[in-house]
Amino acid sequence: MRGVLLLALLYCGATITTAAKLPDTFLKCKRTDYENVCLKHAVEKALKAMKNGIPSLQLLPIDPLAVTKISIEEGANQPITVKLDLLNAELTGLYGVEVVSASYNLSQRIFDVEVFLPSLNLVGDYDMDGKFLLLPLKGKGKCNLTLSKFKANFLLKARDIKKKNDIYWDITSITLGIHDVSNFHVNFENLFNGDKALGDTTNKALNDNWEEFWGVIRPSIEQAFGDVFAHVANIIFSRVPEKNLFMSTS
Predict the structure, then answer these.
(1) Residue 152: which of 77, 229, 80 has the closest Cα?
(2) pLDDT (tens digit per residue) in 53-96
(3) What backbone phi and psi angles, to 5 degrees, belong to 14?
(4) Which among 132, 24, 32 is positioned nearest to 78, based on CA atoms?
(5) What is the mean pLDDT of the chain?
(6) Which fold has domain 2-244?
(7) Residue 1's pLDDT is what?
(8) Do 156 and 174 form a contact (C-beta atoms < 8 A)?
(9) What's this model's pTM, rounded to 2 decimal places?
(10) How far is 184 from 208, CA to CA, in rounded Å?
């Protein structure tokens, strides 16, 4: 299994050398709000605030999100084998996120978040080789992939880093699991060097049997999307010290 993600630059400008504060659009909770309505709303509000970027943190917009490359290689020597590169793509739909639950363990720096997304769409170029049951998969051109009505769980772990007498968080790992998917629709143009009849047949087979196709590529997609959120989280946590992440107790 291989899932490699290359993101376009998500931050801009010179390095921030002083401790930054969360934007006013972010909701702060108390340190003792380990699992409650405040934390759930704070996470959702933060994700939505990132849609158009956060200039004060030099974070560029994430919806749409430019993705340079996602490489997928799954199912070697299996009935379904996929070697797929998604290139120069644009990912949209993150703004529609709804947080189902959120909790954290501050002493261990562990954060657990479950979200629901109505739709996530990726449009770009592709280069594919493989097989789907009895059908070959081969083509290069434009593609459109849509994941509909699904949930995702994020388990994020961090460590403390001290900079200029302030404590910052550094993401050490993130595990993402996608589940309860309602549909996965794909359209690969120019399959088999533009053979429309064979291309239409292949796209129909993939969509009629989307659960099997999704099941094969899911691990790589989970890894790639996990990398997206780890990257975004690190941009924020590397600029905002822990003391500025929570509501003041004074």
Answers:
(1) 229
(2) 888 887 888 898 888 889 999 877 788 899 999 999 999 999 99
(3) -75, 160
(4) 132
(5) 87
(6) Bactericidal permeability-increasing protein; domain 1 (3.15.10)
(7) 47
(8) yes
(9) 0.86
(10) 10
